[in-house]
Amino acid sequence: MLTPESRALDFPALEGQAYLNTAAESIPPQVVHEALEEYWRHKQMGMAGRDFHFPRVEACRLSAATLLGRSPDEIGFCSCSSEAYNLLASALDLGAGDEVVVADLDFPAGATPWLTAPRPPVTRVWRARGGALRVDDLAPLLSESTRLVQVSLVSFYNGYRMDWAEFRDLVRRLAPGALLSVDITQAFGRVELDCHDADILISSTHKWLLALHGGCVVVIPGASAERLTTRAGGWYHLDNAFAADRFDRAVVKRGAASFSVGMPNFAALYGLHAAMDYLAAVGVAEIAGRADPLVRRLQDGLEELGIQTLAPRQDVGGSGIVAITHPRSEAIHDALERDNVHVMHHAGRLRIAVHGYNTEEDVDRLLRVLRSFAG
Q1: 178 and 291: one domain?
Q2: In whole angstroms, what is the distance from residue 263 CA to residue 269 CA?
Q3: Domain range holding 103?
Q4: Less CB within 10 Å around the terminal CB: N or C of the chain?
């Protein structure tokens, strides 16, 4: 991943293109392809394939725990972050007297379940200023009635990475009864995490983790397990799913295990297992060490062109995402596509994502196209 030779071997699809859109979709390494082929071989065995499927789930759980520095019983899996947040809402069972704080740089999956509840809690919005979330603006939103504060460590929208310690300390002081929930989708696999003391961490798997759709990692530390056990029906998350009393009561596994309510998506977890082992072998710190200078190269180039980024520059503790707006964004996007440079374009916003498989040439190709629109 970090050298021309390993990049060509592990990511042959990158040949000839500058792929700078991992914040939307990653290009998985070849080992993920091989894992899917292995799943297919096991699936062809019919019921006997389950002798391989279920152990692979546990192997995936161990890989996630190793990568995150957790114990396996603190790791759960579900199908996507939207499912995880709805299951979190079922666990909390908030009502009209409760308050939730969400951030306007967050992805809708984490911000909207509180708006659709049968008895919706009061939802307060922490709004960014100048592309950054400032704790001075958060403080007035917190109280003893705050039950949940939901944020993203790295914003999908503009790449802003929050100061976790400052945020955590403020919430713990002003809203001691609040749970801290953090979406790490735009960070996990790309940056070294500093939010391990959150009450729950949630990550999709098809972006920086280099895996597939249909997967989501849920991390619930043991201290939060009792409080964060879902109230959903199902079977895989039950201790008594097939016991004689199964229609009289449901005994739900505690914490992270409760977020796997039904049959696992084995194909996604085969792929996730391979991807996380790949990332662990490369090293997230090594990935950041390779990719962060490319982000700085991109930011320097944008400054030279007089193009303002949507988030303030964070050379230390930043992210892999840089976002800009431009009056000719659609034309720029078309020109980038013609040059086989791929970024996200939406409503005038261009979002550029730099992972460990990117190169200086990728960044320079993008800047050359932008330079042609200067002046």
Answers
A1: no
A2: 12
A3: 32-281
A4: C
Amino acid at residue number 363: V
How many Å apart are CA 60 and CA 276, to the nearest integer?
8
Q: What is the pLDDT of residues 148-197, one digit of tens each?
A: 999 999 999 999 999 999 999 999 999 999 999 999 999 999 999 999 99
Six token digits for residue 190:
């790309």
Q: Do 78 and 206 fall within a single domain?
A: yes
Q: For 196-241, give the DSSP string.
A: TTSSEEEEESSSTT---SS-EEEE--GGGTTTT------STTBTTT
pLDDT, position 315: 76
Per-residue pLDDT of 294-313, as tens digits, reads: 999 999 999 999 999 999 99
Tokens 């976002």 — which residue? 323
Do 319 and 250 share a structural domain?
no
pLDDT reading at 317 higher than 90: no
Compute the residue count for the chain.
375
pLDDT tens for each residue of 334-373: 999 999 999 999 999 999 999 999 999 999 999 999 999 9
Claim to verify: residue 62 and residue 169 sit in the same structural domain: yes
**Edge-to-edge, what's the strand order for the sheet holding 200-204?**
75-78, 216-219, 200-204, 179-183, 146-152, 99-103, 122-126
Crossing angle (nearest 10°) for helices 30-43 and 266-282: 150
Q: Find the radius of gyration of the CA atoms of the chain.
A: 21
Beta-sheet strand order (sheet of 321-325): 321-325, 349-353, 344-346
Same domain, yes or no: 338 and 354 = yes
Tokens of residue 317, six digits: 């503790």
CB 335 within 8 A of CB 306: no
Q: What are the C-alpha distances in Å from 26 to residues 42, 61, 242, 299, 364?
A: 26, 21, 39, 22, 20
Helices 360-371 and 284-304: crossing angle in degrees, nearest 10, is: 20
